[in-house]
Amino acid sequence: MNDKKVVGEKAVEYVKDGMVVGLGTGSTVFHTISKLGKLVEEGLSIKGIPTSKQTEKLAKEVGIPLVMFNEIEQIDLAIDGADEVDDDFNLIKGGGGALLREKIIAKAAKSFIVIADPHKRVNKLGAFPLPVEVVPFGFEMTMKHIQDLGCSPHLRQNNGIPFLTDNGNYIFDCHFPKISQPGELEKNLNLIPGVVENGLFVGMADKVITLNREKTIIINGRV
Ligand SMILES: O=C(CO)[C@H](O)[C@H](O)COP(=O)(O)O
């Protein structure tokens, strides 16, 4: 049984005809997007708005019509994966480096559904290093300020070359000990000059679709 496929495809049930759908990034939402592509082929009429270039490519491949922000009034629903989900549905995201566009789209959506295989569920956030997107200019200084908040940041690299986000920025993966006040940390990180956004999504998820130990689908939500 592929846990990511099960939760990813379950989320499709919330997509209705005529909706504008925020399409997340990663290997879980891959299954959502692939299934949506099949439904579009069978006549479902939706428009997608992608959270990354990678997702844009996938959505085009599977035949989901895409829109830009200037063409829409609102996003009805956003569906995305997560790297960690705590008991209050707060998230760490950005393992794939798409956290900024993901947060813009989740914030703009009337409803935000998170799909998470059981390994993503935690009591408290922090085992997964928190991704923080920073502008390249002066990143060495930005790093020191992030460090002052109590973590050890590592510049994300591929073969010794800094990883670049779709926005042309760098990512620091920040090892904090357990994150007990995610809302405060989210705000404090974003107050640092040079920080563009961080991967804490606090109070944003409306529903979390996951699996329990028996591999039954569990849907928890605020609404
Ligand atoms: O935040 C993300 C990308 O920036 C992803 O949603 C997160 O990394 C989960 O990915 P996956 O579904 O592949 O486990």
TrEMBL record:
Stated name of the protein: Ribose-5-phosphate isomerase A
Encoding gene, per UniProt annotation: rpiA
EC number: 5.3.1.6
Residues annotated for substrate binding in this entry: T25, G26, S27, T28, D80, G81, A82, D83, K93, G94, G95, G96, K120
Pfam families in UniProt: Rib_5-P_isom_A (PF06026)
Keywords: Isomerase
Subunit structure: Homodimer.
Taxonomic source organism: Neobacillus bataviensis LMG 21833
Organism lineage: Bacteria, Bacillati, Bacillota, Bacilli, Bacillales
Primary role: Catalyzes the reversible conversion of ribose-5-phosphate to ribulose 5-phosphate.
PANTHER family listed in its UniProt record: RIBOSE-5-PHOSPHATE ISOMERASE
GO cellular component: cytosol
Biological process, per Gene Ontology: D-ribose metabolic process; pentose-phosphate shunt, non-oxidative branch
GO MF terms, alphabetically ordered: ribose-5-phosphate isomerase activity
Matching CDD domains: RPI_A
Active site: E102 (proton acceptor)
Assigned protein family: Belongs to the ribose 5-phosphate isomerase family.
UniProt xrefs under InterPro entries: NagB/RpiA_transferase-like (IPR037171), Ribose5P_isomerase_typA_subgr (IPR020672), Ribose5P_isomerase_type_A (IPR004788)
Listed pathway(s): Carbohydrate degradation; pentose phosphate pathway; D-ribose 5-phosphate from D-ribulose 5-phosphate (non-oxidative stage): step 1/1
